Amino acid sequence: QPEVGKPLRNCYSLPGFDFAYGLYMQRRDGGVAEAIGHWDTIKPRKTKKKIMPRDFVTMNRGAVLEGCTTAREFALYYKFMDIRCKETNRFLSWVPKIPDMTFGRPPRPSTPMFDLIQHRYKEQWMEDQRARTVVQKIKNKKLDPVRDNRTSYLRKNPPPVKEESFWHPARFEKVKPHLSTFPDPEARKKALSA
User: Fold this and answer.
1) What distances in angstroms separate CA 13 from CA 1, 7, 21, 24, one per listed residue?
2) What residues have CB less than 8 Å from 58, skipping those under 6 apart?
3) What InterPro entries would the database entry show (predicted)?
């Protein structure tokens, strides 16, 4: 009977402490000298040439051009004119053709700090303003002077205002006023002179 709580003991004698368990692999790590002098190269395998399937579309077209009409003539044409399909890259055939363009908005260019420090934008704006004023002066010189019509002439040179004359018939000039609201004749003269 086994002891309680302990595994069964086997009867094999274990090797000493110097024993290494597992397979012994001969080390070939000789450093840089061995890496440069002894390259592990693999010889390429000889691949058999792949036989492509027959291209019946091309062969049928050629047979019709040669004048074949019966099945026997077609079979003979296939026998002597063995046309195979051209080898194409099958893996790239399913890849959709994407147009040569970039979608989305381009990134914003970085801020030129050197131009900001030197006030380059202010100088450029001032140069643009100077050039604009020169162009405007040239345009104004080129324009023909517009002749004034009667309305614009009268607007610039208004006619003198006629003094309003208080005309009365001769028979009313000799009549004196019946009512005098001024306190004395001097006050009346002063009011009329104003």
Assistant:
1) 21, 16, 15, 22
2) 83
3) CFAP77
